[in-house]
């Protein structure tokens, strides 16, 4: 049975980078917000600086704006971590001749995202590698109707040899051809 069904876990929002950025934005946003409030009420709310000497307009307002923006962004990232957005699994079932892609979305009636494709609708397994400022290395499920469904999670790019190895193993398992996108 193990050689007929293959399941790959996909990591969602609970990654180290999200924990790092949410904590950095939360602390930085609170500091900027407190500095802006301190410049308005002329009471020092920060133990390591004296923002009461700042002029409220324009410096205090700008600090409050950036602090609120940073704090709001950190709350958004924290909620995506809490709900584990994007996590799930890819299941390749040769017995039922189906490929299932399951992911968690935002809370609501469509929280569980389930995509199911019959094996006979699959044309190939595709690899997309683009280098540069924002490198992208992904494995795609290429359907006969020209749609391309990403199978790899959003994360730091794997090495090219690892990605090619994963794609080759998947193509061999599903008895499909491998193509470069």
Which terms would index this structure?
single chain, 181 residues, alpha+beta, PH-domain like, 2 domains, four-stranded antiparallel β-sheet, four-stranded mixed β-sheet, 3 helices, 28% strand
Please describe what this structure looks like:
The protein has about 180 residues and is of the alpha+beta class. The chain has two domains: about 70 residues, no CATH class; about 100 residues, Roll (PH-domain like), CATH 2.30.29. The chain is built from three helices and eight strands. The strands form two sheets. It has a four-stranded antiparallel β-sheet, with no helix packed on it. A four-stranded mixed β-sheet has the order 7-6-5-8. Strand 5 and strand 6 form a beta hairpin. Helix 1 runs antiparallel to helix 2. The radius of gyration is 23 Å and the shape is elongated. The relative contact order is 0.14. The model has no long low-confidence stretch (mean pLDDT about 90).
């Amino acid at each position: 049975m193990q050689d007929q069904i293959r399941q790959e876990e996909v990591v969602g929002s609970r990654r180290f980078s999200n924990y790092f950025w949410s904590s950095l934005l939360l602390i930085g946003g609170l500091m900027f917000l407190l500095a802006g409030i301190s410049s308005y009420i002329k009471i020092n709310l920060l133990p390591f600086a004296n923002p009461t000497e700042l002029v409220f307009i324009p410096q205090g307002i700008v600090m409050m704006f950036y602090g609120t923006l940073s704090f709001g962004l950190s709350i958004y990232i924290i909620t995506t971590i809490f709900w584990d957005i994007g996590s799930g699994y890819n299941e390749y079932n040769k017995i039922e001749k189906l490929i299932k892609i399951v992911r968690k979305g935002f809370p609501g009636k469509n929280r569980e995202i389930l995509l199911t494709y019959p094996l006979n609708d699959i044309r190939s397994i595709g690899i997309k590698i683009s280098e540069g400022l924002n490198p992208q290395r992904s494995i795609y499920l290429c359907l006969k109707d020209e749609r391309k469904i990403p199978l790899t999670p959003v994360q730091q790019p794997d090495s090219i040899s690892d990605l090619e190895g994963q794609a080759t193993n998947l193509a061999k398992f599903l008895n499909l051809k491998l193509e470069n996108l």
